[in-house]
Amino acid sequence: MRGRILLFFATVSLLLAADPNFTGEWKLNPARSGRNNLPEPAAASLTIEHHGNTIKCSTGSDHAAAPAAAFSFTTDRKESRYRIGESSRSTIVKWEGDVLIINTIVNGRGPSYTVMDRWKLSRDGRTLKIERTVESVNGEAEGNLVYDRVD
């Protein structure tokens, strides 16, 4: 009996410690977002497929400054390389508790810059909050992007 109780608590603790799953259709909520002086426009929508340690994203846009794109990366700290528009990107992702840390170096026609994201799901899984910091030769810019799950 004691073994079953220990097994039960071990199983419950593993379930509670599981990484969040970002799979879903997400729409930017401009009223709740504070984009401040971010040099890159936020994607109007995100489609995320999260399976194991692989995350595939596609973005939708409502303006030419943020073209639609598709890319993927893994959460195991291995480098992922992809292109969005005329820029090449190199991303490394890791978990920090239940927060996904995404660091991307962007190289394009202009000077290189770094985008640092912290993705966190709300407890009910209906809101994706992204804290974004962009570092470039012009300094640092910060903003918060809030995406609501589309039903």
Question: Your description of this structure?
Answer:
The chain has 151 residues and is mostly beta strands. It has one domain (21-149): Beta Barrel (Lipocalin), CATH 2.40.128. The chain is built from one helix and ten strands; from the N terminus they run αββββββββββ. It has one helix at 2-17; strands spanning 24-28, 45-51, 54-60, 69-74, 80-84, 87-96, 99-107, 113-121, 127-136, 139-149. Strands 4-3-2-1-10-9-8-7-6-5 form a ten-stranded antiparallel sheet, with no helix packed on it. A hairpin with a 2-residue loop joins strand 5 and strand 6 (87-96). The model is unreliable at 4-16 (pLDDT under 50).
Measured by DSSP, the beta-strand proportion falls in over 45%
Strand order of the largest sheet: 4-3-2-1-10-9-8-7-6-5
Number of helices: 1
**How many domains in all?**
1
For CATH, the homologous superfamily is named as Calycin beta-barrel core domain
| Order of SSEs | HEEEEEEEEEE
Determine the mean pLDDT: 86
Topology:
Blueprint: H1 2-17, E1 24-28, E2 45-51, E3 54-60, E4 69-74, E5 80-84, E6 87-96, E7 99-107, E8 113-121, E9 127-136, E10 139-149
Antiparallel strand pairs: 1-2, 1-10, 2-3, 3-4, 5-6, 6-7, 7-8, 8-9, 9-10
Provide tags for this entry.
Lipocalin; 11% helix; mainly beta; 10 strands; 151 residues
Brief write-up:
With 151 residues, this protein is mainly beta. The chain is built from 1 helix and 10 strands; from the N terminus they run αββββββββββ.
